[in-house]
Specification:
Jelly Rolls; four-stranded antiparallel sheet; about 240 residues; 2 domains; about 20% strand; alpha+beta; Arc Repressor Mutant, subunit A
């Protein structure tokens, strides 16, 4: 252990440890890089926030002064064209890390779909944490790499896949996001219009495609949000273009 960390070896009082120690998404977020004895340092560097449904908590073009770690809830990530048209580029959920930018301004907007809770880190405080905990910087870089892969997948999705392949790919991606709980059963908190916007389809096409996938026995949808994958292999074959679309 380096001399810079010696002063934090003292056991932490439980009240100071509790917020981060009991965080439901710490193990799947960048915060997991901070060792257990130093969680008070992590908590002290963050400011908690809540965005109610429909509230914009990151705005495209605004100064990129902070990083945000989503604790719970789901947000739509989107960009606007000059004429006001919107393109959803992704959905952020618990464990996702937002705010990585190549410029001094945010390249996207983030709006809460349901109630979103997050931790906000200023650039200076996060840099200090990464300096003292190199593993945190490695996790942030890994997350940035994952974002690049996701962007490439989105290009393939919009550029080459049919409507059925796009919807199947989207369902599998959402299933994978819930893999630690139950990959076959998950929730779609976003409205069908958001899914259509993300996939570059009309709402009618998304609704019709979901209905067909249900009629074919590949999925089951109830309450408009709860999804169960009944035939994972066939759905993946469809997403990969190996099954008739």
């Amino acid at each position: 252990m380096s001399a810079a960390l010696d002063f934090r070896v003292v056991p932490l009082p439980h009240p100071a440890l509790r917020p981060c120690a009991t965080c439901a998404v710490r193990r799947i977020s960048v915060c997991d890089a901070i060792p257990e004895p130093f969680l008070a340092r992590l908590g002290g560097a963050a400011t908690g926030g809540v965005a109610r449904p429909g509230i914009l908590f990151i705005e495209e073009g605004e100064p990129a002064a902070d990083f945000l770690n989503i604790v719970s809830g789901t947000a739509r990530i989107y960009k606007l064209l000059p004429d006001g048209r919107r393109q959803i580029t992704g959905f952020a959920k618990g464990g996702d890390f937002l705010g990585l930018a190549v410029s001094n301004t945010y390249a996207f907007s983030a709006e809460a779909i349901d109630t979103v809770r997050y931790c906000r880190f200023s650039h200076s405080r996060l840099r200090a944490l990464m300096r003292d905990f190199p593993a945190l910087e490695e996790r942030v870089l890994k997350f940035a790499s994952s974002e690049l892969v996701a962007a490439q997948e989105q290009m393939l999705l919009l550029g080459r896949k049919s409507a059925r392949e796009r919807v199947a790919s989207f369902l599998l991606a959402q299933s994978d996001a819930y893999a630690q709980r139950s990959p076959a059963c998950f929730v779609l908190p976003m409205p069908r219009g958001d899914i259509a916007d993300y996939l570059g389809l009309t709402i009618e096409t998304v609704v019709r495609t979901l209905r067909k996938l249900r009629n074919e026995g590949l999925i089951e949808v109830s309450n408009a949000q709860d999804v169960v994958i009944r035939d994972h292999m066939s759905l993946r074959s469809l997403a990969n273009g190996l099954r008739a679309a």
